[in-house]
Design a protein that fits this description.
The complex is a heterodimer of chains A (347) and B (511). Chain A has 347 residues and is an all-alpha fold. Chain A is built from 13 helices and two strands, in the order βαααααααααααααβ. The chains are: A mainly alpha (347), B alpha/beta (511).
Amino acid sequence: MRLEPIANPSAARQLGLPALALVATLGVAMLLALIAGANPLAVLGQIATGALGSKLAVLETLNRATPLIFTGLAVAVAFRAKLWNIGAEAQLYAGAIMAVVLGTGALGSPWVLPLSALAAMLAGAALLLGPVLLKTRLGVDEVVTTLLLNFIMILFVSYLLEGPMKDPMGMGWPKSTPLIPEARLPRLVEGLRLHWGFALAILAAIIVWVIQTRTTLGFEIRAVGQNPEAARFAGMPVNAVLVKTALLSGGLAALAGWSEVAGLKGHLSSDLSPGFGYTGIIVAMLALLHPLGVVVTAIFVAGIFVGSDAMSRAAGVPTYIADMLMATALLFMVLAILLSKVRVVRG
Amino acid sequence: MTLGKEEAEVVLRLDRISKRFGALKANNAVSLTLRRGEVVALLGENGAGKTTLMNILFGHYVADEGVVEVFGQPLPPGNPRAALSAGVGMVHQHFTLAGNLTVLDNIRLGTEGLWSPSVSGARAKVEQLSRDFGLAVHPDAKVGRLSVGERQRVEILKALYRNARILILDEPTAVLTPQEAEALFATLRKATALGLSVIFISHKLHEVMAIADRCVVLRHGRVVGEVDTHATDRGALAALMVGGELSLPRAEARAPGAVLMKLDRVSTPDRGAAPGLKAVTLDLRAGQITGLAGVSGNGQAALAEILGGLSVPSSGQIVLGDHPVAGWSPGEALARGVARIPEDRHHQGSIADFDLTENAVLEGYRTRFSHRGWMNWRAAREFAEGIIKGYDVRCPGPETRIRLLSGGNMQKLILGRAMAPGPRVILANQPVRGLDVGAIAYVQSQLIAARDRGATVLLISEDLDEIMGLSDVIHVMSQGRLSPAFARGTMTAAELGLWMAGQRFGEADAA
């Protein structure tokens, strides 16, 4: 068996296969439910109601989608340039740290929110600067450096929470001093948990989309990602484009952490992110790296997680099913993307 | 042609082979017979279906219709091993040899275990074959150190070692000097005298006339003619091949102008087997086409990189106008009016999944199609439409992805993009390789027109006919060294061939 590239894949193939991947994922979900001893259709139904069944459920899903939109955008921007940023998790925590550093009394209103957002973006960008410079100058593989930075950053956060940032009123729990009210993102609708971070995430998606389609930087990012050799031949500053891409990507991922602290939690803890940085990769891949698609897939993925929590309580199926679904969805989607470009030939 | 050949046994019969790729009929009921001891040339333009047909014969593709018979036995479709064991050997245009192994190991590779006890037997067989067929090559030499001509001999030996009775050669002379090609022809004559049969794929008419007994001409996937080479001439074959009379442009001599670009004792480091430049001095004058001949892999790539801004000399200077350039890069080259037509239009010249508009502005997007960081897509699209119209790019429209274009149309877009800013210096690296005759004529006439406007054109090519037809002055490159300039009409192909082989360089040094 070998793979043969298709010169001109049809639209049906390019969109139908990803859709098929989602259907196949649902099939696996039912199989898993069956293995867990539950009624598969009921489990799917409970996931759906848990995610979308009530106003509260919908708002919870959108809340959970917010950091995923940011990390999904961060990954989508970087992957578009074939810059493999696996470190959105670390950049997320860099943003969260800045939210605490500037949001616990160091700055007063009304500047604290915009300034802490800016500082968060700078911190996230700075964190990705090292790996991208190592890549452009010395050819060090950024997959390795960004991935390892995640562990360094998570340990650094643990250190901060046990030391300099520890909340003296925290009853010994590893969490930071809470943010002052002026440093918190207001609720989008009074009385409900959904905060302004969601609106900002959508705005960010639109801005990224405009950058990619309307600006010279977007043109350069796409060109460098598609064919760096041709980009270089045409006179594009390939390395500078990669650095700019990294700064944008790191800044976006940091906003995920910033909005979780400033919008939802109000403090930093070491369980701030249940792997939003990694899930962002799935979100971006499911969206085929389209920034507006990221909004849709982030909400979809968030719905699966929120719905699985609810289903777990009702059906007694472990919530790990959500993680397995995500992994399955990613594998099927990668396969679908591959098969939309090549066909399998026997012999 | 002797009567004996006509009556000799048929060793290969392709019977009404058809193969479709989507809407394209690559082969349409193609039939061909090959007799014992015969050389049949398969002649056609790029895209005529020659390679598809040979891939079907060799089992890489399965035909939609038709039968392949070798020595009277039908060949199971889609099985290269069956083709091999039936006695069909193929020498591809790009060799499939391991450079770090010896000639003998390469020949044995894939036919038997490396540690089998029959090494001496294999050696004896290889030595016997190389004597019989005049394929002089040392069995213990490392393939990586052999010249291209020697590697081709190894490929042929490999096929003979596997008892091939039918040899398929795909564009075998593309990488050879004229003298090496002559040696190959001598080998083929010996082989046919010993009863082998050869299919010789080519688009070079004079070679076909020199070596083939019969010639099968393909056009658009169909056999449009089958002629005895002794009963035809080049003009008739060319007309068959392109479907009408078509002559390539020839440039008339002109008085040279001022030096627009100059390399002054430029050297670059060797890169593995590819030689760097050895103190190359080159003047490119206004109103002149400078042809650079040479066998591929002799430093042309290093020269093209230097001139295009992709690398900087390790010693020596690049001079544009009156001043040495500083901060040399592709962007700087473009800014200084240097246009480049890259050797590899698929990977260097274009971005496959970008549409024509995006590819058209790849070089000028920053200076001409954007304002304060915002792309002006309307202007970009108009620019692309201008190129499509002005350079006769056949396509559905500017939003077509460039990968869907034929090589010729892709090259026309790249040409239009390069010519748009009115460049003073044009570097064309293999600008017509792989194009059909119509596109070749078009691209070449554009280069001549640019010269007539006062630009200087450097034409790098492995095709000596092209170099000799277009150039006002010719240089030859061999092992990274540049020959003196030869004025138009002062050199024969044979004389240039000696320079290409590197022989004349030594004599010039000694003198």
